[in-house]
Write a structure and sequence with these properties.
Oligomer: single chain
Number of helices: 9
Strand content: 15-25%
Structural class: alpha/beta
Order of helices and strands: EHEHEHEHHEHEEHHEHE
CATH class of the largest domain: Alpha Beta
Largest sheet: 5 strands, parallel
Number of domains: 2
């Protein structure tokens, strides 16, 4: 039997992940009181049980100690129970934004500030996060991209590392992305903005891509960047990093950066066991 415990930050995507597991054939149970976890595992582990795949959602609640859940999981592992832990994560600002948009109260601060609840919850969950088998950061993930990650782990059973790579294009005139880990400036390349027939197009259009990649410097830059990432990424994984944002910028974030980000994304997608997504921050932002 495959047994997956789904936990993580409130607002990080646990409910969505459980629904996707259910669609993949898992028997899913959410919000089970921690005191009933051991009994639940006992029931699903009975010899005559027809259930072969189970997912259990565990949340932080103000009326129960999550340390009890961590203790129980430890006891289950010691008793020979085999399970995997999926931890759903997101940046603090994104979690706060999701709560405010949904107008929900945080379970740890039902009468206080959402910000305080998020910080308290992260502290409470730090131990279980350390022992998680999979950490999925949904900060920049679309629903379809999350589904692709879930399918990769729980349907196709591909080897997994917890590093999610986001390749992002942006415009320096709109500011450097605050969540970028690595920033690269491609303003050394000729700007298609000054080519009349390319001005209103973007790096998502074939004509702009052919123009930008027609310069030898673009190919050399892309090759050197790819080589560097092939060295860095395994070392980031080794150190337990779970999110890497690679930001490529030009002046307005519409032509050169979009083209190079797209090309890098395609190269990174060829790497096995690596979660990669593409995000063009400023491609539709008004202005040059």
């Amino acid at each position: 039997m495959r047994f997956v415990v789904v936990t993580g930050m409130s607002g990080g995507g646990k409910s969505t992940a459980l629904k996707m597991l259910e669609d993949a054939g898992f028997y899913c149970v959410d919000n089970l009181p921690i005191s009933l976890v051991e009994k639940f595992v006992e029931l699903i582990s009975m010899p005559n049980s027809e259930i072969s795949k189970v997912a259990l959602g565990l949340d932080v609640r103000s009326d129960q100690s999550f340390q009890d859940a961590t203790r129980i999981l430890g006891q289950l592992k010691q008793s020979g129970c085999t399970f995997e832990i999926l931890f759903m994560e997101a940046d603090e600002n994104v979690l706060i934004k999701r709560y405010k948009e949904s107008r929900r109260l945080h379970p740890l601060e039902p009468e206080g500030r959402v910000e305080d609840g998020v910080r308290r919850e992260r502290k409470v969950l730090e131990d279980v996060r350390k022992i998680a088998d999979y950490v999925i950061d949904t900060t920049h993930l679309l629903t379809r991209e999350l589904k692709e990650e879930m399918d990769r782990i729980f349907v196709r059973n591909e080897e997994y590392n917890s590093l999610m790579v986001t390749v992002m294009s942006f415009g320096f005139k709109h500011g450097i992305p605050v969540d970028a880990d690595l920033v690269f400036d491609v303003r050394f390349l000729p700007n298609p903005f000054y080519i009349e027939q390319l001005k209103e197009k973007t790096g998502n259009d074939r004509e702009v891509q052919e123009y930008v990649m027609g310069f030898e410097e673009a190919s050399v830059f892309l090759g050197k960047l790819t080589d560097m990432l092939d060295f860095l990424i395994p070392n980031y994984v080794k150190e337990g990093k779970y999110s890497l944002v690679i930001a490529i910028g030009c002046t307005g974030g519409k032509h050169r950066s979009v083209t190079l980000a797209g090309e890098l994304y395609r190269r990174m997608k060829e790497r096995k066991n690596l979660g990669v997504k593409l995000y063009h921050r400023d491609v539709n932002t008004p202005g040059k």
